[in-house]
Design brief:
Layout (H helix, E strand, L loop, with lengths): L3 E10 L4 E7 L2 E6 L4 E6 L4 E6 L16 E7 L2 E6 L8 E6 L5 E5 L1 H11 L8 E6 L3 E6 L9 E6 L7 E6 L4 E2 L2 E11 L2 E10 L8 E11 L5 E8 L4 E9 L3 E8 L7 E10 L4
Antiparallel strand pairs: 1-21, 2-3, 3-4, 4-5, 6-7, 7-8, 8-9, 10-11, 11-12, 12-13, 14-15, 15-16, 16-17, 17-18, 19-20, 20-21
Length: 278
């Protein structure tokens, strides 16, 4: 068996442009960057359902007005779905409570303005693709595919909407096919961050470019030191990663792919990383 193995697991019909996913108790929750629905898939019942995040929820929303949901995470019994922050409409987040099924819209305009003023990342270069909540901090993974190429981690200390401190840690990543790779998602397993990055031939956070491949990487939480990276595709852009299960010998993750199309099909992949590679 290879140290790192990627295989197509199944396909979901009724979901397009999947940009993030979260696995919890045999339930899979997904978001799309062109929709403001939360998608729910039961692995036991093999059924995909849609949860309205607001009354006007829709699919295939035009790029200029979409929320551009790119990151999903869980705090206690609440799911958070974050917009990328690259336009006024995208400076928002939705929450969904797993027990009460209550949804809320969070206006994060002031947060993103504070991030921009304290990190130097302007609106044209803002592009949040992954979020990891910690006990007293939030880690925002900034994709540096804009003109300024600011790829790194934004660390918020304290309250999400009004943090007491904001730090920016630049994280350079290796190129694929002579194009720089930039963050597309991240997940925390114990004290280790597993992240995805993609190479896209574009210097815009708004317009898509030719995909030149994706890689998976491993980073220490304590100091954000990258332990290793490994290419997983030369043609695909993987945008979501979540832990599926763990054994004594391997970690298995579910990955979703953004095909940058309006097709209502989502391919879900299984990524296996043997622990000897860490």
């Amino acid at each position: 068996m290879q140290q790192i193995q990627l295989e197509l697991l199944f396909q979901l019909v009724g979901l397009g442009a999947s940009s993030g996913l979260l696995f919890h108790q045999d339930q899979l929750y997904l978001i799309s960057d062109s929709s403001n629905y939360l998608y729910h898939y039961s692995l036991t019942e093999k059924e995909l359902t849609k949860i309205k995040l607001q009354d006007q929820s829709a699919e295939n929303i035009p790029k200029k007005i979409k929320h551009d949901l790119e990151a999903i995470c869980k705090v206690d019994q609440t799911l958070y779905a974050f917009g990328s922050g690259s336009t006024a409409k995208r400076k928002t987040a939705f929450t969904y409570h797993l027990e009460s099924q209550e949804t809320k819209l969070l206006d994060l305009t002031l947060l993103f303005e504070k991030i921009s003023s304290q990190t130097g990342i302007d609106i044209e270069n803002m592009n949040i693709e992954g979020v990891i909540p910690l006990e007293k901090e939030w880690l925002f993974f900034q994709r540096g595919n804009g003109i300024a190429a600011q790829n790194g981690i934004i660390r918020l200390t304290g309250n999400l909407e009004n943090p007491s401190k904001i730090d920016y840690i630049p994280i350079p990543l290796p190129p694929l096919n002579h194009i720089s790779t930039t963050f597309t998602d991240a997940v925390l397993v114990n004290e280790t961050i597993y992240f995805l990055a993609a190479a896209e031939d574009s210097n815009s956070t708004f317009a898509d470019g030719e995909v030149m491949g994706s890689l998976v990487g491993v980073m220490r939480l304590a100091d954000f030191k990258i332990l290793f990276t490994h290419p997983i595709s030369a043609t695909q852009k993987f945008e979501g990663i979540t832990l599926f299960d763990e054994s004594n010998t391997a970690l298995r993750f579910l990955l979703c792919e953004d095909q940058d199309s309006e097709n209502q099909l989502a391919d879900l992949y299984l990524l296996t990383i043997k622990k000897t590679t860490r």
